[in-house]
Amino acid sequence: SAPLAGGSVKGRFIGDKPTREVREFGVWLEKHIGVNHRVMLDLCATPVQGYFDPKPDAPLIIAQTGNGILDTLAHEYVHYEQWRDDRPITERGVSQRAAALVRKWRRERP
Q1: Model pTM score
Q2: Span 53-57, mean pLDDT?
């Protein structure tokens, strides 16, 4: 598995190699939302757009590669936030929060 970036970033990519944009976004997401666990990120040609599996030792996020991957990663990381904060994992407000995260990242990029 390859680290998202150097330093203390906890996520690891498995599956398809991420693009530079996806790596940068993943690093930003983990720092911005406060990831406290090692999160496995599986980027692959999956039939589902995204999936969050709340495994206690290393939560797993599966995201379909291609168009919309940043939106999918943000969406699944919002589910991580729900899990981390011991809230029910639901779709309520998730798409709106994910879209706001992607917009904020795009504004903050150099």
Answers
A1: 0.81
A2: 80
